[in-house]
Specification:
Layout lengths: L4 H24 L3 H13 L1 H11 L2 H39 L3 H8 L5 H31 L1 H20 L1 H11 L4 H39 L5 H13 L6 H13 L3 H29 L6 H15 L3 H21 L9
Helix pairs in contact: 2-7, 3-4, 4-6, 4-7, 5-6, 9-10, 9-12, 9-14, 10-11, 11-12, 13-14
């Protein structure tokens, strides 16, 4: 097949677009998670922006106030809590180092050989040492890379501000460049919004609230190293199926083993009734029932895969990518291929 001048120009343009797309990808690769973080935060705080804009009637001012609120919520915890977390990690490390694992293993496996007990104790000590030292190194790196961190925070605020202020323009632009027809665009947008609400509000936000409430309970009942355990409760609360129970049950066992049986019972009842029942079962079900339901398996696989691929932000991005992909597959299956796209 002989190519004419018009075909050659098309191929050159396509090649140029592909090359530029690769260059753009490598250009934004170091900051792509920060950009996604700004977009996700903009989606979470969109109700706040709308309420402010309804009163002020000035999109730029409403976006500015929302941005200041978010930046303060990010910077203040880093400034005040990171030193406390490092201190509590060090204390936890010393406490775990003082645990006699040999006696604990023998109490569970009375007939175990001395070699098994010794190897188990050595493995536990090595695991604890690596876990604590890794956490300390990660937190220390936050301070050492403070200038870069400030740049990421500035970029996050920049993306957040313009995503709120120009949200409608962005939506129109994406609709114009979308290959799908207008009807399909509206349907997909509705489904994507429902999925995003289900993941962001029904899983992530509720998980954070669960962890915070569990942390407040730790402070009330005088649990040591409450801040570290609160962060762990938040992370586990976000992940489906697992939840903060993997923190408050061991804490309950710790309280009971130290002779604080009454406190242990009250603490356990509070977490079961408030954290696991009211927040998890009732509030999460209420939010998800109004949105597009995402199967727990999709959430779990997406979160774990996103965590390995993208780090902590992948916990949110992973299930979104997987859910969007499944939605597109369903639309492709239910409609003819040509009907999906613009004519």
């Amino acid at each position: 097949m002989e190519l004419n001048e018009k075909d050659i120009k098309k191929l050159i343009i396509i090649a140029l677009v592909i090359v530029l797309a690769f260059l753009v990808f490598f250009l934004i690769k170091p900051i792509i998670l920060t950009i996604f973080g700004g977009l996700i935060l903009a989606y979470i705080f969109l109700p706040l922006y709308r309420k402010l804009n309804k009163s002020l009637q000035r999109p730029w001012l409403s976006s500015l106030i929302s941005t200041v609120v978010v930046v303060v919520l990010i910077v203040l915890p880093l400034w005040f809590f990171v030193p406390i977390i490092i201190q509590q990690l060090f204390h936890m490390f010393l406490a775990l180092q003082g645990i006699n694992i040999s006696d604990f293993v023998i109490s569970i496996f009375p007939t175990a050989s001395d070699q098994f007990v010794a190897q188990t104790s050595l493995a536990f000590d090595s695991f604890i040492s690596k876990m604590i030292s890794g956490a300390l190194a990660y937190l220390t790196n936050i301070f050492l890379s403070f200038p870069a961190l400030l740049l990421h925070i500035f970029l996050l605020g920049f993306v957040f501000f313009f995503s709120l202020r120009d949200g409608e323009r962005i939506k129109i632009f994406l609709s114009e460049i979308s290959p799908f027809n207008s009807i399909q665009n509206k349907l997909l947008l509705k489904q994507f919004r429902g999925i995003t609400d289900s993941v962001v509000y029904g899983q992530v936000v509720i998980g954070i609230v669960q962890g915070i409430v569990a942390g407040i309970a730790m402070l009330i009942f005088g649990i040591p190293n409450a801040l570290i355990l609160t962060l762990l409760s938040i992370m586990l609360g976000i992940i489906p199926v697992i939840g903060p129970g993997f923190v408050y049950i061991p804490v309950t066992i710790y309280l009971a083993s130290t002779g604080q049986m009454f406190t242990a019972v009250l603490y356990l009842v509070f977490n079961i009734v408030v954290v696991s029942s009211m927040l998890d079962s009732i509030l999460r079900t209420y939010i998800i029932s109004r949105k597009a339901q995402v199967h727990p398996l999709v959430l779990f696989v997406g979160m774990i895969g996103g965590l390995f691929m993208l780090g902590i932000l992948g916990v949110i991005i992973g299930p979104l990518i997987l859910s969007y992909f499944i939605t597109l597959l369903k639309e492709y299956r239910e409609k003819t291929f040509g009907g999906l796209f613009k004519q």
